[in-house]
Amino acid sequence: MESVQQVEPFDYIIFGATGDLTMRKLLPALYNKLRLGQVPADARIIGTARTTLDRDAYIARARDALQHFIPAKFLFPNLLEQFLGMISYVTLDGTSADSNWGELAAELSSSPASRIRVFYFATAPQLYEAICANLHAKEILTPESRVVLEKPIGTSLETADAINEGVGKFLPEKQIYRIDHYLGKETVQNVLALRFANPLLNAIWSAEHIKSVQITAAEVVGVEGRASYYDTSGALRDMIQNHLLQVLCLVAMEQPETLEADCVRNAKLAVLKALRPIKEDQVANETVRAQYTKGAVDDHAVPGYLEELGQDSNTETYAAVRTWVDTPRWKDVPFYIRTAKRSKRKVSEIVIQFRETAQSLFGAVPGNRLVIRVQPNEGVELNLNVKNPILDEYQLETVKLDAPIKVEGGPFPDSYERLLLDAVRGNPILFIRRDEVDAAWVWAESILNAWADKKAPMHSYAAGSYGPDAAKALLAEHGDRWHEDMV
């Protein structure tokens, strides 16, 4: 069970408080932390949005959201009322200096100035600078304030720099928390424990023993109502440039001196800077992009991406990249990163493929495989070679050692739960530093530019499949296969 470590009293001010993210993730996460005893009784949540609502109307929305997104067995009536009692609402346009800032200031003035204030920007990134400018001008920011920025931090290096510069005019880097919910997933955090707390694995975590690494995040859902937004982003911007590169960093980084935030982030930054650049004339050989066409998911017919969008598009819904980490530890080890919409199954996982043994007591022996299941069915799986017990002669077969990661007495914690309270604690270890954002964009932009110039073909794949054949060919060049083709 999670040890109860209650954080200090805080005010959480959410811009975009009527939006889907707040209702689906933020409020349920804070409720769960109250249920676990980690949120003090005098904490406050102040929702703000342009939608004109009084407090009762907002509380009604919050109640509906919690009843929908919290499993009934964990929604206790008395605790629910206590949590709703912590919430207030201010109708406010965060980008307008003439908006209702006086009411927000009055809400906050009832707490001591030394109280921790977390401003969560669940809004479009282009609004971040204007909101910060108003918080500064209205003297609402304090030395104990932090701002949490939702992704995406830009759509390019230039736009990311503009966002970071805009927010940085009003807050020092130590008060800026760029959230990446993938780093809040317990199974992603477990990569560090698996590597550095297990001498057995740590000793073989290198090119000498590892043949390749796969990092996959695939969804069965399509873009549906988000088609117009998604078409301005695409799979590489949406998932690879941020979430999956961060996972790659945890797999590939050297052991940090301590678990202090900047030690870990320095180690991740070193990986991002060691990523081999993919030049534009190499993009067609090192990447695969594709769009889903009509097909079937769970026996239900679904339309293709262009049908959902209603127009032609050069935006990918599938992306696979072969990349290399140019450090001695990872010399000549390919890292395969992929993400997909309308996949055959929902899966986020890391697959470590160990090298085969060419000559052994049993002849050629298949390499072992370690699978870290991020979601669903969180856990760790190790494939080992054993003797077939039915046969007299030594014939090998592969068995799977499966260790699910479970939480006794409660649901598996959502990634936002840890992150929301880490911002209160002032612990940025799972948040992204500005130089990490820059380094990731530097690596990604050559791919994006080549795709924009159509220097790599746009493949297609049927909805409900694992992706285009070209992605299999990408791995086959180095004698590798995607995980689903191994089982």
From TrEMBL:
Active-site residues, record numbering mapped to chain: 243
E.C. code: 1.1.1.49
Residues annotated as domain Glucose-6-phosphate dehydrogenase NAD-binding: 13-190
Residues reported to bind NADP(+): 50, 151
Keywords: Carbohydrate metabolism, Glucose metabolism, NADP, Oxidoreductase
Ranges in coiled-coil conformation: none
One example GO MF annotation: NADP binding
GO BP field: glucose metabolic process; pentose-phosphate shunt, oxidative branch
Gene Ontology annotations for the cellular component aspect, listed alphabetically: cytosol
Record's catalysed reaction(s): D-glucose 6-phosphate + NADP(+) = 6-phospho-D-glucono-1,5-lactone + NADPH + H(+)
Domain spans labelled Glucose-6-phosphate dehydrogenase C-terminal: 192-483
Lineage top rank: taxon: Bacteria
Binding site for substrate: 181, 185, 219, 238, 341, 346
Root EC class: oxidoreductase
InterPro entries membership: G6P_DH, G6P_DH_AS, G6P_DH_C, G6P_DH_NAD-bd, NAD(P)-bd_dom_sf
UniProt pathway: Carbohydrate degradation; pentose phosphate pathway; D-ribulose 5-phosphate from D-glucose 6-phosphate (oxidative stage): step 1/3
NCBIfam families: zwf (TIGR00871)
Family statement drawn from the similarity comment of this UniProt entry: Belongs to the glucose-6-phosphate dehydrogenase family.
Main function: Catalyzes the oxidation of glucose 6-phosphate to 6-phosphogluconolactone.
Protein name per the record: Glucose-6-phosphate 1-dehydrogenase
Species assigned in the record: Neokomagataea tanensis
